[in-house]
Design a protein that fits this description.
The protein is of the alpha+beta class. It has 7 helices and 5 strands. It has a 5-stranded mixed β-sheet, with helices on one face. The longest helix has 33 residues. It is globular and about 65 Å long. The two termini are 21 Å apart.
C-alpha cells in the first residue's frame, strides 16, 4: 500500500514533526538511519517502485520531481510544511538542527572566521558531504544501467549490447572505480587523529551519506576485502552501528526484508 504510515517516537523533545517519504531500493535509507542516530520522532511514509523501476506517481504530490528521499517538516510558525529533497541537503539540514554531534568542530583555535582556519576534520566533512552524491554515486548509477542493459536486452541484439557494456566497463567504469577506491583507502589511512571514519574519530553526516554507495559496492565493482581492507572494514563498521541496525530492522518489520542494492 503506497504511503503506508509508520510513526517512530523516541525523542524526548523535538521542534517540528518530521515525515520521511521512504522508497524501496533508493537512497532514503540513509535518512532513516540519520533520524535513528539523532533519536528523533518521525513518521515514515512507505512507497514502492513500479515494475519498470520508476518511483510511483504519488511521490510527485510531495515534490515535483517525484524522487526519494524527501522529508517534510511541520513546525510552529510555518504556514505549510517545509519540504526538503536531495540526500545531501536533507542530511545537512537535519544535522544543523537536530544532530550537531554529527558535524566536526569547524574552526581551529584562534582562526575563527578566517580563510583556511577550518579544521581538517571539518574540511573533510564538507568535501565528503558533496563527494558521495557528486562523484561516487554517478558511477554507481551507470554501473546499474549497464547491468540492466546486459540482463534485459533482447536476445538478437545481445552481442551488440554486451560489446557496448564491456567497453563502458573497461574504458569508463573500471578505471574510475579503481581511482575512487584507492582514493578512499588513502583517506581512511590518513584519517585525522588516527580515526576510523573518513573525517576522524567520530561518525559524521558525511559517513552516513557514504554508507549507501559503499554498501552497494562491497563485493562488487572491484571492492574486495583483500584489495581495500580499510574501505571494507569502514563499510562494515558503518553497518554495525546500533542506529544503522535499528533503521534496517524498521524496514524489515514493515516490508519483511531489506535490500541495500541499487
Amino acid at each position: 500500500m503506497e504511503g503506508q504510515s509508520v510513526v517512530q517516537d523516541n525523542a524526548k523533545q523535538q521542534e517540528g514533526k518530521i515525515t520521511l517519504h521512504w522508497l524501496n531500493k533508493s537512497r532514503s535509507q540513509r535518512v532513516l538511519w540519520l533520524l535513528e542516530e539523532c533519536k528523533l520522532k518521525y513518521e515514515l511514509e512507505i512507497y514502492h517502485r513500479e515494475p519498470v523501476g520508476l518511483a510511483p506517481p504519488e511521490l510527485k504530490k510531495i515534490h515535483p520531481l517525484g524522487k526519494s528521499p524527501v522529508i517534510s517538516i511541520e513546525a510552529e510558525g510555518l504556514a505549510k510544511p517545509l519540504v526538503l529533497a536531495e540526500s545531501g541537503a536533507i542530511v545537512e539540514y537535519l544535522v544543523d538542527h537536530y544532530g550537531p554531534h554529527l558535524a566536526p568542530k569547524k574552526w581551529r583555535e584562534g582562526m575563527e572566521g578566517k580563510v583556511g582556519g577550518e579544521t581538517e576534520e571539518w574540511l573533510r566533512y564538507r568535501y565528503f558531504m558533496h563527494y558521495a552524491e557528486g562523484t561516487l554515486m554517478p558511477f554507481m548509477v551507470v554501473a546499474v544501467l549497464m547491468k540492466n542493459i546486459r540482463s534485459n536486452a533482447p536476445f538478437f541484439v545481445r552481442p551488440i549490447s554486451n560489446a557496448i557494456v564491456k567497453n563502458v566497463d573497461a574504458l569508463y567504469l573500471t578505471p574510475n572505480f579503481n581511482s575512487n577506491w584507492e582514493f578512499l583507502e588513502s583517506r581512511l589511512a590518513t584519517s585525522p587523529n588516527e580515526g576510523k571514519y573518513l573525517c576522524g574519530k567520530d561518525l559524521t553526516g558525511a559517513d552516513i551519506l557514504m554508507s549507501f554507495p559503499l554498501g552497494a559496492a562491497r563485493g562488487r565493482v572491484g571492492v574486495t576485502k583483500e584489495k581495500y581492507p580499510l574501505l571494507w572494514a569502514y563499510s562494515e563498521r558503518l553497518e554495525a552501528g546500533e542506529s544503522y541496525k535499528r533503521a534496517v530492522q524498521k524496514i524489515i518489520d514493515i516490508e519483511g526484508s531489506y535490500d541495500p542494492e541499487l
